[in-house]
Structure formats: structure tokens, C-alpha cells
Amino acid sequence: MKNTLWLWILLIVVIAAVLGYLATFLIKRKNLERLEELETRKIDLFDLPILEEIDSVKKMHLVGQSQNTFREWNQKWVDISTISFAELESLIFEIENLNETFRFFKVKDACEEASKTLANMEKEVEEIRLGLKELAESEERNSEVVQEALDAYNEISQSVAEDPEIYGVAYKELEKQIQGIEREFTQFKALNTAGDPMEARTVLEEAENKTYEIKEVIEQVPPLFETLDKVFPKQLKEIKSGYETLKKDHYVFENDTILANIEKLESRIHSTLMNLEKLEVENVAKLNKEMAKDIDSLYDLMEREIKARQYVNDHKAQLTNFLRHAESNNESLMVELDHVSQSYVLNDNEIGKARGFQAQMEEIHKELEVTEIALEEKKAIFSQIAAFYKESLAQLKDIEAEQLNIDQSIKGFIPRERKALESIDDYELELRMLKRYIEKQRLPGIPNNYLEFFFVTTERIEELSRELNKIRIDMNHIDFLVQSCQEDITSLKDKTENLIDSAALTEQMIQYANRFRFSHPEIKNAIDKSMSLFAREYDYEEAFNVISEAVERIEAGVTERIRKYYLNNKDNMI
Fold first, then answer.
1. DSSP letters spanning 242-272
2. Structural domain that includes position 379
3. Ranges in the Cytoplasmic compartment (predicted)?
């Protein structure tokens, strides 16, 4: 029994030893893998081309703040590659020893510390590389800016030196400022070489600003100078020559200040050249624009007189003939109005208008004589005469149109009178026919309202006849009476038809109602009332309404049926 127990104990010890050995082996192997990972990361870190990148930036010969920044990144790399690297190597060596002596808990802590140290080194190296990259790119950009400024300077310097004539009075000042910029670039190079980057940068910025400023000025100067030196003087010379020619040709200018304005412009050109000499290009551009506008005004003034003279020559005969024609028409119109006014009333002040036309034409005639004298004496201002011609022609055109309207209006009096006379005969015939038409119906009587309207219409026609028999006829009133008579006749026809239709329909409705006379007492009462209205009061429309309403209550629709039958057979029944 004891032997068996010891065997079990021995077996457990052996198994525990084996398991302990396996655990130790696996932990040690895991730690070795961690060490290999750290070694790999360390090798990858120091295989990065950071030394080449540092050397590349170093060759750029940085100055100022850029140089200081580079030194900081370089020192940081030196610290990492020496101090941090030594610390990492020490930790790795310690991990190897701890792992070999099976102090696994300390191995884990040491591995974590080494990994953290390596991670910090990787992060710092990445920052160094990014910083070096930004520094290189920034320096490259700065170099490009400096080169652009130098190129711009060389361009303007060469441009001014090669063709000084196009800059005129501004050349000396341009040359002076270019030389000043050249001195600043030279000073920049000297300061940079001497190791004073901050002052060098300040001088460079000043040189760059002046370079681009003077470049803009140089681009503006040639056209400004050409305008002042060639264009304006040529134009003023041309204006002066043209003015003298026009004066010899007897042109007269209102408030003539052309020569004085030319002298003022010449003085302004001289003073503006002095401004250009000081490179005040914005002010010169503004002054040039103002002078160009004034010069154009002088051209316009002379051109206006030339065109005005041509207009006067082209329209002189037209105005004279038109005036003569309008005066002749007005004389004929006055004679015609005097004749017409003996027989007709003139409602639109035709005679007053014709006299007004005559007064206008007399004013034109007087002014025309004044202009003729001015033309003969060579004192005429053609623009004023042209304006008078245009205004007079427009007035004569309006006068002619008004004369024509009046002439057509009075010529229409006789046809309108004739038409009114013919209308009276037509209206009287219409009245006689309506009267016979009613008499033919043998009605018991005629309603008073119809008779009143008939007499009103008759009186209107008689009034029209009386008006037409007057010594002087008012055609406006005649036209009104003709229209009123026509409207009355039309209305009387409608009233006549309605009167006859109501009487005939009443008779037919009473005949139809007799069949209900004994069976429906109310029908008998309606018939009696309708007959009374028909035979005594002659109110045929109301008589029809009374009997039709009574019959409709017994036999709906009968009224419309009888009305329809009557209208279809009206011509045969009346």
C-alpha cells in the first residue's frame, strides 16, 4: 500500500517537472520572439535614410530661422541615435539576461519598457523627417520666390536699358529706382554671406516689393508717355489747323473759346508730363482721361458745326418751299372756312386754329429772314440755324396735318347733311308703316305708354327736320339727332311687335281657357279679368299674363306650346 502511494507521488512530481519545463520553454521562446520583434523594429528604424535627408537639407546653405530649425532637428537626431539608442540597447541586453536566468516577470516589464522607448524613438524620427521635408520644401519655395524677384528685376532692368525712348521724361527716375533695387539685392547677398540672415531677409523683402511695384509702373509709363508726347499734341495741332480752316470758311462758333481751350490743354499736357517724370502713374492716367474727354469735346464742337452747315444747305430750299406751301394752304382754308361758316356751325374753333397757324408761320417767316441776313453777312452759327430749321419743319408738318384734318372735317358737312335729309324720309316712312301695321290688327285701343313713345319719336324726327331747315346748321347736333331718331325707331319697332304679339296671344289663350270655364271657376274669373284688361285698359301684356298663369295651374306647359305655335304661324295669322 505504501509502495503504491509513493509511486503516485513520484508520478505527480515527474509530471509537474515536465509541465514546469514545458512552461519555462514556452515562456522563454515567447520572450525571444519579443526580442526579435524589437531587434527588427530597431533595424528598420536605423535603416531609414534620415542621414541622407539631413545631408541634403544641410547642402541648401540655410540662413536665419530656417538654419536654426535645421540645427534643432539635427540635434534631435543626434540625441536619438546616441542617447536613446544606447538606452534601447541596454534594455535589450537586460531582457536577454533576464530571459536566460528565467526571471520571466521582470522580462515582461523590461519588454514593455523597451517597446515604449522604441515607439517614442519611431515617433520622434517621423517628426524629424517631416520637419526636414517641410524645411526643404519651404526653402525651395523661398528660393523660387527670390529667383522670381531676381528674374523680374533683370527683366525690367533690361527693358528700360534697351529702349529708354519709350519712357521719355520718366526714364531718369526709373533708372534711379532700378539702381536702388540693384543695391538692395547686392546688400542682401552680402548680409546672407556674412551670416546675418534676419537683416538679409528684411532687405530681400524690401527689394522684392520695390521690384514688383516698379514693374507695374514700367508697364504703364510707355502708353501714358506716348499719349502725352505724341497723341495729344497731334490731336491739338489737328484741331487748331481745322479751326483756322473753318474760320477762313466763315464758320462762327457760339462763345468761341476753342483757341483758349487748346492753350489750356497744352499747359495741362506739360504739367502732366512733370507728374509722369515723378512716376505718378495713377494721377497721370486720370488726367489723361480727362484731357482726352476735353479734346473729344473740341472735335465734337467743330464736327457739329460742319454737319449743321451741311444740314442747312440741304434743307434751306425745303423749308422755304414748305413754308410757302403751308401759307398757301392756310389762305385757301381760311376762304373755305369763311364760306362754310355761313351755312354751318363750326364747333371746333376751326377759324381760330387757322389764324393760329398763320401766326406760327409768320414767326417762322420772320426768323427765316433773320437767318438769311446772318448767312449773307457770314455771321451765322450753323448749329443754331439747323436747330431752327428742324423745329420749323416739325411745326410746319404738324400745321399741315391739322390743316388737312380741318379740311376733311368741313368737306364732310354736305354729305352728312344729305344723309340726314334722307334719313328723315326713311324715318317718316317707318312711322307710317308702323301706324298702318297697328291699325290692321283692329285692336280695341292703344296703350298710353306706347302712344307717348310714338309721339316722342315723331317729335324727335320733326326736331331733326327743323334743325336741317335752319340757315346755319350744327352738324354735331344733327348727327346726335340722327342717331337718337334711329335708336327711337328701332325701339318703337320692338314695342310694336311686343304689343301685337301680346294681344294675339291673349286672344288665343282665352279661347283655349274656355274649355275649363265651367269645370274650374277660377278660370272664369281669370277670363273676365283678362278681357277687362284687354278691352278697357288696352294692357295686352298684363291681360296675357293673367290668363296664362291661371291656365298653367291647370295644364302646365300650355303657355309655351301656344306661344311656340303662334310664332311659327305668325305671318299667316296677322
1. HHHHHHHTT---TT--HHHHHHHHHHHHHHH
2. 306-411
3. 28-574
